[in-house]
Amino acid sequence: MTFAGLIETIVFTVIDPLLFLVSALALLYFILGVTKYIYHSGDAEKRTEGYQMMIYGIIALFVMVSVWALVGVLSNTFLGGSYSSSSYNRVGNVDCNNWFYRTSNFCN
């Protein structure tokens, strides 16, 4: 296995799922903050806690999107575009990684 192949394997099997998991947790944290903010609208202290949770959730989502973009840029720069060509299989404007188009034989 080449160095580029090893890095690509690490990116696709470790980093991408990890970024997805952490992004999902950040979104859940944001939603919990919204719920706390709305549910405890009469209590100023709980409402402030909910507001802070929403802010931290938004910051975490921003960081995850930034890390995802940075991984894509670094991978495209140092691996010669293998990140985008492997992760996005497109025919025209159709994403062939989408299960609907894969099962309909549109991309074959």
List segments where confidence is low: pLDDT < 50 over at least 5 consecutive residues. Answer: 84-91
- Counted by DSSP, the helix tally is 4
What integer value in Å does the Rg equal? 19 Å
Helix percent reads over 70%
Shape: rod-shaped
Task: Give the percentage of residues in beta strands.
Answer: under 5%
| N-C termini distance | 28 Å
Task: Describe what this molecule looks like in 3D.
By secondary structure, the chain is mostly helical. The chain has one domain. The chain is 77% helix and 4% strand. The protein is built from 4 helices and 2 strands; from the N terminus they run H-H-H-E-E-H. A two-stranded antiparallel sheet has the order 1-2. A hairpin with a 2-residue loop joins strand 1 (90-91) and strand 2 (94-95). Helix 1 packs antiparallel against helix 2 (44-78). The longest helix has 37 residues, at 3-39. It is rod-shaped, with a radius of gyration of 19 Å. The relative contact order is 0.12.
